[in-house]
Urease accessory protein UreE (Phormidesmis priestleyi ULC007), 148 residues
Amino acid sequence: MKAVTLTFTQRLLTGDRNPVQYTLSLTAEERSRSRHPFQTDDGQAIYLHLPRGTTLREGDRLRAESGELAQVRAKPEPVLTVTAESAIELLQVAYHLGNRHVSLEITETYLRLSPDPVLQDLLHHRGLTVTEEVAPFQPEIGAYGHAH
């Protein structure tokens, strides 16, 4: 690990295409930590000091106090990917998981959530296909999340 710790304080607006010096691969939980030390993919020590409540997304770009740029990547992590024979089945289970305040990635063809044996059993009982895998996880940030 390199000795100097860079402090990243700014998330750039989408559309910024300046070259990045670092890639920062983070799990969904790590992307919700706005003030925390991490390491870039090449081992550079960094510190995030972003506005409280910031949730990072795949592709976000960050600027350090010293001007360096980093790009955020969704790090593959253990997940349950849920598929169904019909869209209504996915909508129904999204409703039930939402009532349980489960972090959920929602797409047209699948739902994705963190592994949980109780929820996995519920999904199997509803007749859904549940696949355990390691994949990037991008849960919805919620109705009051920070958009960019």
In short: The first strand starts at residue 6 and ends at 11.
